[in-house]
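Here is one chain, start to finish.
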Amino acid sequence: MVYLNGIREKFLSAVFISYGIKLDPNVVLINETRKEFVGDYTIVIFPLVKLLQKSPEQIGQVLGDWLVNNETKITGHNTIKGFLNISLSDIFWTDILTEISDTKNFGYSPLNGKKVLVEFASPNTNKPLHLGHIRNILLGWSCSKILKANGYTVLNTQVINDRGIAVCKSMLAWKKFAHGETPESTGIKGDHFVGKYYVRFETEFVAEYDNFQSTKIGITLYEAQKKDGQTIHEFFKEYKNTYFNTYSILGAEAKKMLLDWEAKDPEIISLWRKMNDWVYAGFNVTYEKLGVSFDALYYESDTYLLGKKAIDVGLDKGIFYKEPDGSVWIDMEDVGMDKKLVMRSDGTSVYITQDIGTAQQRYADLGIDSMVYTVADEQDYHFKVLFEILKRLGEPYANDLHHLSYGMIDLPTGKMKSREGTVVDADDLIAEVIEEARNMSSERGEITALPVSEQEDILRKIGMAALKFFIIKVQPKKRMIFDPKESVDMQGQTGPYIQNAYVRIQSILRKAGSDYKPSTFTQGCINEHEKTLVMHVMNFPDIVKEAGKNYDPSALANYTYAIAKDFHRFYHEVRILNAETEDAKSFRIGLCKLVGDVLLQAFDLLGIEMPERM
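Its structure:
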């Protein structure tokens, strides 16, 4: 922690003067003292015990006495086992607050000259955005903002999956069953409209498949290919994909449509563009609701052919090898991975091929130094392979690639399934949390005097905070269950709870007026509640760095909860506007302002807005 560097330097001096040892500053660990012990900060002295062959108590006594005698801001010490606990003077805390108050862009690092590309969202154009996309989007967006706060120039991007058999299923269903209806004629949002026909295709296909199972061909297949003891239901559950590719009339039509698209059939291309435009219009509305934007867009219809040149280069360099059937592979068994196909025998690409080409294209387009891929943990192995291939190809950015891997979201009832229409749509969820905020507000009645437009803006901010914080507070790698009722709970470890701390601070500042905005902090005696808040404020830059280093916005989210919880306690336990003295009043108002500023900045980095009133 930068604000403890002076203490660290004094401790290093104490060790050198007392024992003649020059310690590496990086081995000096300073932590907040645990609540059950006396002190403000704890210095770990275990490394010196073995080095000096003395007891922790002896070493702690010598070093503690030296620090008290030579640093006026250290007022006392005690040693518990291998931990030297030190107490700091009021001057230490007031000086820190004054320094923080005078620091421009507190918590943010200067530009480091590096450019990072963050990929997130990357939806398919056959269905609307859903709850799973929301976790992806919120993680990617907050990560990009945190990286920017850490000094990076950040570009946001997505690869829109606008081609393939799934997209053709929606197109075919619309062509067969829509009778010309459009989003405009039905009043249905574009992505929801197209998604309706993706579900319609599945419904029609399931009906076709169910009918097939009782036909002579279906029964014959079962009798000829069933496993021992396998029921007809079990057999056809496993046979579904084979049926789609071999016998299904709808399957054959969808596959033909894909081939026609690849052959650039004018009619199919026109339909594809029309339906994709409907989806894009719908996506943009949802992105705006979520408060996210992109600097560069890539489309799979453009990128699916990329990477073939890289395969040729890799073959020339001996990075890849060709099998007798013409397929191209890479052997990565030397780094604990297996052999991976990178080009089919017919010369067509696989996903890893186009990902190689897309990475190369991005570097050519944008000149980035590193890339972050926000993709679910189902693709962990895929990205290990991709990153290793890019290293072997000698790509200049290959050593600075990161997979922001996250666990999937389940419903209390189990997994979501887009084809069956059992997903939680993003737009529906957004509307639900805002409605829940409305219900809460109507019970409290605290904003009813405000203009309707202002009320609606506040309700939107509260609802979106409930949704976003619920998802971001979970460490990305953890799989999570989304419970709609829990997500919109306005108490406890929630976004609105933290917003309420900020709103309380704004109310205090409004009541205080312009007379109490000190640039320096003078306070005769700082109590434990105040000291706790100062420590939280001091920690902000370190939390921002930690969140950026680990690509983990949950660290910042949980920090905001901790500081809000302690502020609420401070608010109830300490007199602020009617403090005992004018100095105490001025100090506490200034401290409130700094806490509010930190909460505002931290929530902004998480992509969450703060209301002025609730």
